[in-house]
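Ticket #455: bound-state structure for XIL.
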Amino acid sequence: MAQKTPGGSPGRLTRRALSVLTAGVLAAAGVVSLAGTAEATGALGDAAAAKGRYFGAAVAANHLGEAPYASTLNAQFGSVTPENEMKWDALESSRGSFNFSAADRIVDHARGQGMKVRGHTLVWHSQLPGWVSGLAATDLRAAMNNHITQVMTHYKGEIDSWDVVNEAFQDGGSGARRSSPFQDKLGNGFIEEAFRTARAVDPGAKLCYNDYNTDGQNAKSNAVYAMVKDFKQRGVPIDCVGFQSHFNSNSPVPSDYRANLQRFADLGVDVQITELDIEGSGSAQAADYTTVVNACLAVSRCTGITVWGVTDKYSWRSGGTPLLFDGDYNKKPAYGAVLAALGGSDGGGDGGGTGACTATYTQTATWNGGYNGQVTVKAGSAGITTWSVPVTVPSPQKVSALWNGAPAWDAGGTVMTVKPTYNGTLAAGASTSFGFTVTSNGSTAAPVVGACTAS
Ligand code: XIL
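RESOLUTION: The complex was predicted; output attached.
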């Protein structure tokens, strides 16, 4: 059903536009009331969003039907990356015949949950069908550009960032390009060509170069750095660099991880941690996760983190138990470490809450010139009689209204400490919320919601 040949089907956007139109007509007729635009992105996603970042997971379409898999994904993550479903062999296994069904299932699920989607990946030497490798140069160039065009057109407007080219550099000290059909037949210029084609197809998507063993400063990352610098100087469209960050004892988190992210950011691109997993267990694994999250938070252009799977049992390196949830979907110490590093706290349940209350931020509406924010305050395992939550509203944004809470402003007028008006008393596990309207004055930055304190 999702089979599509080039130039044939109108793609997904038309479908969405129709359903929005239908909802609008029904609402105008008073038939339904539209739900708000609140997006619940989940505990890790919300904590990261309060820091202006996303926190996502790689997902596989064939696990979405497993209830604890879907509920863990929905409760925790604010972004998804299809683990294999958008690779060339999955989408165009024979020339010109596209099958988007598995990738569509993931994108539909994510959009239904208000999650962002990373597109992975358009041009890569691996998981590449044999017919591509067999083409001669002219044909290969046409096939590459057609693949990018068809795939990005299908998902136009739905993908936050695309990994346009994946893993084009060799490991080791040479700094050379990796041999691949694209490199060998088209030369270095294939990367630039892929990015230019991608920009023309979906100018709204961020375009990333993605690689591994580039997480610290070394010959390979130096070569990628030189390429990105050259692209920025010559105006080749590139917006972001992805650092896969697959770590284990042979390939530990580099000591210059943060510095390496920063030097790329200083070239004028965003940086993203795209495939994080760290083999190990217990507090050592938790400490490494903390290091990685803190490095991203310390680099203002580090826009988000994706872990390469939801649960250890489906990890591509399951023997190394590298993820945040074990095979039974229990939170591991690494989960608590990530949540704490993101400034969130576990509101009880199986993780065991530490704070007496938690504060979770959601943007509930947005329009040209402003937005509404909502903070849900939830009591921990004991009842509370009052609470207090600091909210930093980045300058030049201004708060124009606040409800269900009373603000005390700092001298600089950017931090409002919100206390309850009538809604201070909460039983154990109960919650309330306050909301506010912000005039953006040109800034799209998210407010930073600090830790809730209670008594
Ligand atoms: C891996 C998937 O996790 C596996 O399921 C698949 O068998 C092979 O690919 N770098 C990447 C990812 O960019 O696409 C890879 O994903 C892991 C390494």
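RESOLUTION NOTES: Residues 83-84, 166, 212, 244, 275, 316 surround XIL (CB under 6 Å).
TICKET STATUS: resolved
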